[in-house]
Amino acid sequence: FVQVVVLAVSIVTIILGLGLGLGLQLESSPVSCRDRCYEPYDFESPGCRCDEQCVANNNCCYDFKDICLQPTETWECTTLRCGEKRISSSNCHCSADCLSAGDCCTNYNIVCNGAKSWVEDSVQLQILYSTLLYFTLMYSTLLYCTLLYSNVLYSTVLYSNGMYSESHGLVDNNMYDPVFDATFGLSNPEKDNPRWYQGQPIWHTAMYQGLRAGTFFWPGSDVAINETFPNLYEKYDGDTGIIVAVVLMLVIYFYFDYRPDFLTLYLEEPDKSGHNYGPVSGGLVSAIQGVDKVMGHLMNGLKQLNLHECINIIVVADHGMAETSCDRTEALQDLVGDVSHLYVTQGPFGRIRAADKTYIKFKCVCVCVQCKKLDQKIKAYLKSHMPKRFHYANNRRIEDVNVLVTSRWLFERCGALTFCSGGNHGYDNDDYSMQAMFLGYGPKFQFQTEVEPFSNIELYNLMCDIMEITPAHNNGSHGSLNHMLRTPPFSPQHPQEQSLPGQCPLATLVPTDPLGCSCPDCGYVTQLRSVNTGTHWRTFAASEKKHLMFGRPRVLQSLSEYCLLHQEGFISAYSRNTHMPLWSSFTAGGSSDPLPGVTEDCLRPDVRIPEDQSPTCDQYTNAGNVTHAFLYPPSLNSTAEEQYDGLILSNVIPMYPEFKKIWQYFQDVLLVKYSSQYNGINVVTGPAFDYNYDGHFDTAEQIQEFVTGTGIPIPTHYFAVVASCLDANRPVTDCAGEFYTISFLLPHRPDNSESCMSNQAESTWVEDLIWFHQSRVMDVEWITGLSFFQDSGRPVPEVLRVKTRPTAAIQRRT
């Protein structure tokens, strides 16, 4: 036993001795690159090396990569780097003096001083919150930020001026201008030519009002628009790391003399990976993680500079992403045959123009493409026929024929697509996969507030409000996003009415001229007498309370001559200019009972309208392919007698017989359905004239150009604005809270070829077609020159929010 113990002690003694000896040996020879990076190698000094040749010689210190190499390759501090000696080639520093020098890595305080990261310290962040629709996965950092989704513009070019693409001119990444006879593309010199860029970008708006603006890689910022660049800008360089740009932004903010009031940064991810790998893929997950890291650098860097609670930050996407496959394509050649005479823009949205500039048979191209096979995935439109919600027609760079493609499918010329698998965007912007994201953070934003979707064009005005500058003219509605700001600087007002209503008094109960009309029951005068005689002012008040509960539509067209007509079942504004109603407003209860029948072959003059200001029944009898219809549905009555109020010429509108099928189904079936679904509805309907397809009402002179030999102006569209109470438990007649709208701008055409099912019963296709032509209330206002809801009793910003609510946010009830 003693021998064993002695042996054990001896062994321990020997081991300790060797250890101590080695320790003395190591202290005399460097084993670390700490404070030694790239110092000249001393051949007389033993130990490992930290010079540039040590890798090749295989004698670097164990931490050479972590301490000497990584600072030139990464943008983060590690515990090994804290308190380091400065390395001139480092991307950022972790030395003790980096804070005063303003060149610390963004996580310096976190790693080296034990500070909390921006995310960990997020309890007091001024943030907004909503759902994120663009990505399948959410960034972990951005979970702490504003998550809102916005409705994208139809063209997916992000050019920050608050305008639709048809207004600012950048209708696509590749486009042809027939006046310039030139083609714009992201890879050709034309992209640097200012003549393509219309509208005022946000950086110019800031600069013109005395602020400094900077941009990093933002579309259009490296072009001399209006002969002006931003104060600071960088030409796009795909080889420049995005973290480099973030650090440059932070450096700019550190040095006060160069600090801008407005600064942008463009990230090509995750869009690039979304295209390459698709929206549900490991490649996109990796890209999202990378963007998450970039956002972490930015926010931690701002926190390190103590600016994270001073700056207002917006993160926005300009589109979503849908999965595509080479197995899901539709070829134009398969539908029309020879396409050698056509230029075709392929992909998720198609455009077609003639190779021969004199070729004008574009309508033939549309006809040849439409409804050629069952379950066809493409549909061609003349640009004048495009749904108004797209705002994609009024520009010469938009081809005459445009092709809408079903989501996840691709349009090609003749099997010529070279890139078809992965992901793409440019589909109908009401499609769920096309919805974008918006994040807002900063002292001017509301605290932890979820907001409803909004259109991207509204962002320009929002950014101007944040900078407290005046926006240039744009397509947005200033003040519609006031609910996002703590203290909005702008208070919107309703537009001022340009034409006041005149009088159409009841002079007689019996018309002096039947105007070619007849009605089998002459007792119709009873209803007009009850509304328009002795106690009419009391009846008017009750009628307006019921049928104009949100206020009389104001007329914004100048020199418009019209009068208000009160009936028991509806109120209308009759135009002396067009000899038809400007609008008709009525309220339908929540009953789903079938409507009573309408007296056949009954139409009569309105004795309140002078004969020389009224249409005649003879006009419609001799109008050829145009017949008459009713703006207010006479079938929508509570008594059989009440319908006579609707069977009058002042309620008549001109209509193509084929479209009349749509209109009557809408009136007789869908309005009853929606009245039941929404617990009562208030409906305003009317004609619209937009022959030059600019989305705005035509002048009287423009309308007159298209009047047929009958003298009847033919509307290009008919509109309907349907309002209900947002709280479905409250009827529309007792709606004290927020109200809800659905609106439609229905194209008035001689045929129904837009629907491939128009030869079937209306119940199989009309509602789908109507909802495809859904619109914002604001779009209806633009095309009609009317202003709705001015007497609703709600704050103007709330009314604007209702008017500008994107159609993607209004879902059809089943």
Give structural attributes.
single chain; 814 residues; alpha+beta; Factor Xa Inhibitor; Alkaline Phosphatase, subunit A; Gyrase A, domain 2; 4 domains; seven-stranded antiparallel sheet; 25% helix; disordered N terminus
Largest sheet: 7 strands, antiparallel
Give the amount of beta strand, in percent: 15-25%
CATH topology-level fold name of the largest domain: Extracellular Endonuclease, Chain A
Q: Which segments are poorly predicted (pLDDT under 50) over 5 or more consecutive residues?
A: 1-26, 123-150, 152-157, 530-535
Total count of domains? 4
| Rg measurement, Å | 34 Å
Task: Tell me the strand order in the biggest sheet.
Answer: 19-20-21-24-25-26-27
Per CATH, the class of the largest domain reads Alpha Beta
The average pLDDT score comes to: 86
CATH architecture of the largest domain: 3-Layer(aba) Sandwich
Shape annotation: elongated
- Going by helix content, strand content and strand pairing, the class is alpha+beta
Helix content: 10-25%
End-to-end distance, in Å? Answer: 93 Å
Q: Can you identify the CATH superfamily of the largest domain?
A: Extracellular Endonuclease, subunit A
Number of helices: 21
User: How many β-strand runs?
Assistant: 28
